[in-house]
TrEMBL record:
Keywords linked to the UniProt accession: Transferase
SUPFAM superfamilies in the record: CoA-transferase family III (CaiB/BaiF) (SSF89796)
GO molecular function: CoA-transferase activity
UniProt-recorded name of the protein: Racemase
Coiled coil (residue ranges): none
Origin superkingdom: Bacteria
Membrane-crossing segments per the record: none
């Protein structure tokens, strides 16, 4: 028995943020029905990294496990009628249409809540449901650029550097996941559904709670150093440093201890809370010059023995093979009917009594259309007619 068993989610979202949020609900046991066009959701046709897969590309595979696929044309009257019928017994409706599209399709909150007042309606957008940027494209890199975070790291005068993850999509997905769970809890107490709105701009802005408060409350300017410091609001040393055979990270080391380990008199008499700011570039330069004289493993051993915060810089190959990652069971493996043995990141939340599990891999387009419509009360003849007319797609 999983925590969200008995909860039904209608996932009408595309790309990453919406599908990722719905997948997390599915991981907790919700029955997630992916309502997608008869041609398949956009992500099925856009393979990140060129990883196309057999019948399902890796992008789609990674974001749509624990879901069933109903492929239906919502622009057809019969198709929309099927969705509205499902809304009657749904618990969560999740969409990330461009602002205004839900109203044009007739699946906006006002319409669906009139059908089912207990419905949790999660609406995701790039910049908000209204306002001057309402129609702008909500794409991860564009929002990273707007967030201000790119100018909190790196060297002054160097180009801003984006994150190595689809950071805004992921933060937005978790915000939607959190919002859906909170609204479900509210409904348990009161019996009433509600509208939950998430936008990418607010999500990436509010996750910078500490940094932006230092700016707005503390009045500290966001100023990068001449050297590539890892964060403008963290004292030196703080960044990535080359060793003789790779790179390591080093964070906020006590300057006196650091000077002893580096055998560098430059650090003598320095105060952590003042000199680490006023001499940030010089500290970086001295650390940089010393660390290239030994290997990453040698420096990490010395730093850890002295209780200095330091760590390796991994690529994905090293991450996947890390002993703590293996110990945690961070990655899960399962057999997919068309893609074979699959290994992907697993479940970040652990429950002692209701652990998450994979009940099914990402579905083929319309793989569960007949099953879902049968549950809706349609007989075989009616489903056959919908398939023959093109309103519904059933995977062969």
């Amino acid at each position: 028995m999983n925590i969200l068993n008995g909860i039904r989610v209608l996932d009408c979202s595309i790309a990453m943020a919406g599908p990722f949020a719905a997948q997390r609900l599915g991981d907790l046991g919700a029955d997630v029905i992916k309502v997608e066009p008869v041609t398949g959701e956009w992500q099925r046709h856009s393979a990140a990294g060129g990883a196309t897969g057999n019948q399902i590309n890796v992008s789609f595979l990674s974001l749509n496990r624990n879901k069933r696929s109903l492929a239906v044309d919502l622009k057809a009257a019969e198709g929309k009628a099927l969705l509205l019928e499902m809304v009657k017994t749904a618990d969560v409706f999740l969409q990330n249409y461009r602002p205004g599209v839900a109203e044009r399709l007739g699946v906006d909150y006002a319409t669906l809540s009139a059908i089912n007042p207990r419905l949790i309606y999660v609406s995701m957008s790039g910049y908000g449901e209204d306002g001057p940027y309402r129609s702008y494209p909500g794409q991860d890199l564009l929002l990273q650029g707007m967030s201000g975070a790119m100018l909190s790291a790196g060297a002054e005068g160097e180009p801003p550097s984006p994150a190595g993850q689809y950071l805004v999509d992921a933060v937005t997905a978790y915000s939607a996941f959190e919002g859906a769970l909170a609204a479900l809890f509210h409904r348990e107490r009161t019996g009433e559904g509600q509208l939950v709105q998430i936008n990418m701009l607010d999500a990436i802005t509010t996750i910078q709670m500490q940094e932006l408060s230092v700016f707005t409350v503390g009045g500290k300017p966001q100023a990068r150093s001449a050297e590539p410091h890892a964060h403008s609001y963290i004292r030196a040393p703080y960044g990535v440093f080359a060793t003789s055979d790779g790179y390591i990270t080093l964070a906020m080391a006590p300057l006196a201890t650091l000077g002893v380990l580096l055998d560098d008199p430059f650090f003598e008499g320095m105060d952590d809370q003042t000199d680490s700011w006023t001499h940030r570039d010089a500290i970086y330069a001295h650390v940089k010059a010393k660390l290239v004289t030994a290997t990453s493993a040698e420096w990490l051993e010395r730093f850890r023995a002295a209780d200095i915060w330091a760590g390796p810089v991994y690529g994905y190959a090293e991450l996947v093979d890390d002993p703590q990652i293996r110990h945690n069971g961070t990655f899960v493996e399962y057999d997919h009917p068309t893609e074979g043995r699959v290994k992907t990141p697993g479940f970040p939340i652990r429950f002692s009594k209701t652990p998450s599990q994979i009940d099914r891999g990402a579905p083929l387009v319309g793989e569960h259309s007949r099953e879902v419509l049968s549950e809706l009360g349609l007989d075989s003849d009616a489903i056959d007619r919908l398939v023959a007319s093109g309103v519904v797609r059933q995977h062969a």
